[in-house]
Amino acid sequence: MAKKPRSRAADYATYLAVRVAVAVIQMLTARVAYRCADAFAWLLYTLIPARRRVALENVRAAFPELDPDRADRIVRAMFRHFTRALVELAMMPRKLRPHTWRKYFVANETGMTQVYANRPAILVGGHFGNWEMAGFVMGLLGLRTHAIARPLDNPYLERFALWFRQGTGQTIIAKNDDFDRLTALMGAGGRVGILADQDAGPRGPFVAFFGRPASTHKAIALLAIQYDAVIVVGGVPRVRRADYPQRPDFDPARDMAPMFYALKVADVIDPRDFAADPNAVVAITQRFTTGLEQLIRAHPEQYFWVHKRWKHQPKAKSDKRAA
Questions:
Q1: Residue 119 and which of 15, 27, 174, 220 are 20 to 30 A apart at CA?
Q2: Distance between CA atoms of 86 and 316, rounded to whole angstroms?
Q3: Quick one: DSSP state of residue 317?
Q4: Quick check: 117 pLDDT over 80?
Q5: Which alpha helices (H) appear in the chain, and where do they start and end?
Q6: 3-state SS assignment for residue 135
Q7: Confidence at residue 94, expressed as pLDDT on a 0 to 100 scale
Q8: Mind listing the domains of the chain with CATH numbers?
């Protein structure tokens, strides 16, 4: 069935509403902006019961040892984390500069050096922490990366998102539409960021994710093998300032103190290590999925549990034996 034509007026009105919201957030003090984010999180938790139920079901399935109250607290904290992250995205272009980013971000230098090797690199992450900040800060560090993203249906919002995402040097490759561009980039030794935690449908390879079979895209493993690319599995979770060295000129009591993230590298995977494995694609897919799981286990309230990650399950093998 043909898709219903989009209304340009509605799209433009939505775009204007988003731009006004961003402008308002940028005018507010950080303390007030965070309070607004927390209020919005409460509204989302309260007024969207379907998403709340999906998130709660996923948390309880991933952590069966948790009592219902603890699982519910994780879901509430998830909504609060991501509404705060949205507020921080609006603040980011004004707060994060080449001379200020260290106030808000800790780079794992050991992990960062992996993507500077003389080989292509695939930076694998998930809908965890603040993945948009990762690309933003990498641009500030002078690391030119590409990221695969699904274009927004609203063309006005898509142009605005591209302006933000590519503002510090990151380049966006349209998901499913720029395969030739992607392969050319990998062949030239480029670095590509991919979010690899969404259901891949009934035909994707199933690997264990929190002890349950999860359909996972195999393109990452195939690209790594074909182009001899190193896979760096990482994320950017919100962390406590007290746990990390920080610039002495930044007071942890300031209103912007909650915007403090760290680049964490869970694993570095070399496809050469799987050269003799006939099931290399599945083995590599399992390994980067396990790396993402390790990050999420450390910060479960910062994972986007509203995704139906286990939507598809392996089909039961039919009993073909004669009755």
A1: 174
A2: 41
A3: P
A4: no
A5: 8-27, 30-47, 49-62, 68-95, 109-114, 131-140, 155-165, 179-187, 219-227, 280-298
A6: helix
A7: 87
A8: 11-245+252-302 (3.40.1130)
